[in-house]
Structures are given as structure tokens and as C-alpha cells.
């Protein structure tokens, strides 16, 4: 796993926690969220060691187009160097260390297209392969710059999965597919590479990046935070680790009620399923900023009460809904991937990819988040959310990263409700009266699994069993 933080005893302690242990009552400390020293250590022990999503392939479609990805003190340039080829470099000139591409804090990602990169300070020049092609008065160095490795850009590992671009600053890192593990098998059927941005927004938010990402790791908060949704159904959830990563999905408090649908994204609400299915789909769509579903799905759900007789069993309502939405999409040139009910069920509702990416997926859409630290401040983060969807070819919307204040007007009611916890969790965790976290052993395993693995990288902070 490429984890070497020189803290062996703690590491062994952590390895003792198995996947099964995550089902036990656990606790973990809050230093990871509030400590400046911890945030400094992340710069050495976490960020340079893990694969991180740096963008989407659709961000850089032409040869020579590039994007920057900043995390903590590091900045990476990802460049499309060929039709099917990407390269990534540290965003720094080897002469005296100027950033090659200026990346201001108030820009989400800098994008552009270049034939070569000319440093703004003394004009050293680099081609797309990172090779130095020009140094003014090179002879002054008396031959010391003849070694190409001394004057080229520093390369960073880059790979792609599901249409996303991932980078890893560790030259000895494991391959991306090994890092993803079972995520690849379980989520590949959704073919995220065929989806495109519908919208993308970001904000600088007053909490630690982990406080923010954890607000989207568990549906246990739905009853308390999004109580308006309770009239549509129950939101009991399961959660489950897959290596570094984790998934959650709908579950039944009453085990006898389990159906194939119960771990899926699609779900009937309470009462007449022809009506509640529509109401829940519409409510989700409209209050999650027109994401977490599609217009096709909502419109097909709206017709259920006209197309099906009263008393149609839930399973038949759901099957009819999916069939007619699929036909509607086919008619406008949007093809659905083949996903079996078993695959759908295993894929659950929402994934957290270690350390800072989340994907809430559907057959033709995904609602995604990424969170990064902001500067050196453990109390601030860069919060980003975007919706992906399958569009008819040529009808993909043109989108840009838009800075949006974290409120209901800009993000929809549901996301605004989530925002309205994060800042106060960040403050609350600092309380002298806080006795330590008590995550739900059934519904919040994604979070404890996250801290289990974070603890392995950081050498501190792993969850421990509670004596009871
Ligand atoms: S710092 Fe880049 S050319 Fe001098
Ligand atoms: Fe939420």
C-alpha cells in the first residue's frame, strides 16, 4: 500500500482492526480535523502518497490542453500530450522555482492550451514532454546543465478511470487500478466515462476538508438534517468498506422488508408507489440542484399513475419506471449501460474513494464531490461538487467551474442543509466538553473505514474499540 510513516507500533495497532471490527462501536480522535500540526503532516504523509482525482478527460480534449490541480502546497500540471496520452508534472520551473503556470487561490483550476511552457521569470522553456528546450546563456553553467534530468520538469504519475484523471506524486506508488481495488469491478458497469458535466460549482468553506467530505459519507444524517424527505420514505442505511474505499446504500430496519431494490438508488416512497415514486424522484431532483436523478427519470415517474393501475406492486412499478425511462432516453439518443439488478445492488447508492472523492451514482448520472485543504488552515477547505450525466451526442452543455456561495439559492435546499452542519461540526469538535466521536457501527462504516486508512498513512488517529 506504499504506507511508510515510520511509526510501526501504531501501524500494527491499526492493522488489527478488520472489516468486521468496523461493525463494532468505535471512536476516533478529532486531531485530524482541528490540529494545525496534523494538517502540516498531511502534506508529507498523505497527499504525496495517494492517487487523487485531478479532473476529467473532458477538461483537456485537445493535444496541448492542460489543467492544474493544487493540493496543500503542491501544484500539478496535467497535459494532454497525444490523442490517448496524458502527462503530469510538478508545476515548478527547475531554475529558481517559479510556478510555471500561476495558480491563484481564487481560481478552482487553471486551464489552457500550449505548444510549450515558457517560464515567466527567465524564459526557460519546456515542451509537452517536460523536456527543456531553451535556456538563456546555458554556457554560463560550464556544462553542468548538460544533464537533461537536471533541467526537465519533474514528472508525476498520471492515469485515468471512468473518465476521471488521477495523479500520484509518489514515483513508487502502486498502479491506480490496485489502489481502486474492487471499486473498478463494481462501478465500471456505470461507464462514467460516457457521462459529461452538467454543472460544476465550488466554494471556499469554513471547515476542515474531512469534516466536509464526511458530511456526504453517510445517509444516517438524512432524518436529522433533511427531515423534509421523511414524508417520502425511510432512510435507514448500510455502509461497507471495500479496501480503502467504502459504499453506503438503503437498508431496512426490519430485515424482513429487504427487497432487491433496497440497496439501490431507485426506491419507492410511502403509500401508493405510483405516486410516491414520482414525488420522491422530483423532490430529490429539484432540491439537490437538479442532480441525483435526471429529467428523463422524473418525467417517466410522473406518468406512472396514468400508465399503471392502482394496486400495482412496488417491484412492478419500479420495473415499469425504469423501462419507460430507458425508452425515453433511447428516443433522444441516450443509451443506457447494461447493469444487472445484482450489479446495481452491489453498487449501492454512494461511494467514497479514498481520500477525498465521492460519487453518488445512477444508471445515467452521478453526483460527485471533491474536497481539498485550503492553504495551511485546518479550518478551511475547497469544496467542489459537480453533476455528470449522459447526453445525446453533441448536446453536452458547456460548463465551467463556478464559484458559488454555499446557500440554497446556489446549491439547492438539500446541499444547503448539509453546509449548515459542516461549519458547526468544525467548531463543535473543538469543545472541551466533547468526549470523542461515536460513529454509528452500521450506518457510518465508511467514515470509520476512512479513519482506519487515514490512520495508516498518518501513523496516528486510527479508530479504537469502545469498552462497553
Ligand atoms: S525561475 Fe524559471 S526561468 Fe528562472
Ligand atoms: Fe446530506
UniProtKB/TrEMBL annotation:
Domain Rieske: from-to ranges: 51-167
Pfam family, one: Ring_hydroxyl_A
Domain of life from the UniProt record: Bacteria
Cofactor: Fe cation
Keyword Lyase: no
Name of this protein: Aromatic ring-hydroxylating dioxygenase subunit alpha
GO MF entry, a single one: dioxygenase activity
Keywords attached to this entry: 2Fe-2S, Dioxygenase, Iron, Iron-sulfur, Metal-binding, Oxidoreductase
Transmembrane spans: none
Stretches the record annotates as Disordered: 250-270
Amino acid at each position: 500500500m506504499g504506507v511508510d510513516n515510520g511509526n510501526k507500533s501504531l501501524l500494527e495497532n491499526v492493522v488489527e482492526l478488520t472489516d468486521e471490527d468496523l461493525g463494532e462501536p468505535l471512536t476516533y480522535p478529532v486531531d485530524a480535523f482541528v490540529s494545525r500540526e496534523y494538517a502540516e503532516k498531511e502534506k508529507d504523509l498523505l497527499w504525496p502518497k495517494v492517487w487523487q482525482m485531478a479532473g476529467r478527460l473532458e477538461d483537456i480534449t485537445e493535444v496541448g490542453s492542460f489543467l492544474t490541480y493544487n493540493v496543500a502546497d503542491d501544484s500539478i500540471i496535467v497535459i494532454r500530450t497525444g490523442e490517448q496520452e496524458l502527462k503530469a508534472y510538478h508545476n515548478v520551473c527547475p531554475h529558481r522555482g517559479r510556478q510555471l503556470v500561476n495558480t491563484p487561490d481564487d481560481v478552482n483550476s487553471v486551464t489552457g492550451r500550449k505548444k510549450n511552457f515558457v517560464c515567466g521569470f527567465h524564459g526557460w522553456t519546456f515542451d509537452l514532454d517536460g523536456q527543456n528546450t531553451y535556456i538563456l546563456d546555458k554556457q554560463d553553467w560550464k556544462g553542468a546543465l548538460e544533464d537533461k534530468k537536471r533541467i526537465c520538469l519533474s514528472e508525476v504519475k498520471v492515469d485515468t478511470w471512468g473518465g476521471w484523471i488521477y495523479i500520484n506524486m509518489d514515483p513508487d506508488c502502486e498502479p491506480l487500478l490496485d489502489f481502486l481495488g474492487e471499486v473498478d469491478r463494481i462501478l465500471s458497469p456505470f461507464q462514467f466515462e460516457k457521462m459529461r458535466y452538467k454543472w460544476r460549482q465550488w466554494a471556499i468553506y469554513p471547515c476542515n476538508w474531512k469534516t466536509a467530505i464526511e458530511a456526504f459519507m453517510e445517509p444516517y444524517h438524512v432524518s436529522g438534517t433533511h427531515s423534509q424527505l421523511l414524508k417520502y420514505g425511510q432512510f435507514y442505511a448500510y455502509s461497507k468498506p471495500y479496501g480503502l474505499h467504502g459504499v453506503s446504500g438503503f437498508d431496512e430496519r426490519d430485515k424482513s422488508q429487504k427487497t432487491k431494490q433496497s440497496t439501490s438508488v431507485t426506491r419507492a416512497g410511502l403509500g401508493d408507489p405510483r405516486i410516491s415514486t414520482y414525488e420522491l424522484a422530483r423532490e430529490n431532483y429539484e432540491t439537490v440542484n437538479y442532480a441525483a436523478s435526471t429529467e428523463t427519470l422524473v418525467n417517466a415517474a410522473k406518468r406512472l399513475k396514468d400508465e399503471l393501475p392502482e394496486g400495482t406492486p412496488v417491484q412492478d412499478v419500479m420495473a415499469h419506471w425504469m423501462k419507460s425511462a430507458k425508452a425515453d432516453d433511447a428516443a433522444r439518443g441516450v443509451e443506457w449501460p447494461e447493469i444487472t439488478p445484482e450489479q446495481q445492488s452491489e453498487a449501492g447508492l454512494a461511494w467514497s474513494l479514498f481520500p477525498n472523492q465521492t460519487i453518488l451514482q445512477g444508471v445515467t448520472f452521478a453526483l460527485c464531490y471533491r474536497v481539498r485543504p485550503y492553504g495551511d488552515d485546518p479550518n478551511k477547505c475547497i469544496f467542489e461538487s459537480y453533476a455528470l450525466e449522459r447526453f445525446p451526442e453533441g448536446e453536452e452543455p458547456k460548463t465551467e467551474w463556478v464559484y458559488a456561495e454555499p446557500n440554497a439559492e446556489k446549491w439547492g435546499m438539500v446541499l444547503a442543509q448539509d453546509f449548515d452542519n459542516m461549519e458547526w461540526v468544525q467548531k463543535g469538535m473543538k469543545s472541551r466538553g466533547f468526549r470523542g466521536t461515536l460513529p454509528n457501527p452500521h450506518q457510518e462504516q465508511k467514515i470509520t473505514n476512512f479513519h482506519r486508512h487515514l490512520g495508516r498513512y498518518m501513523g496516528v488517529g486510527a479508530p479504537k474499540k469502545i469498552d462497553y
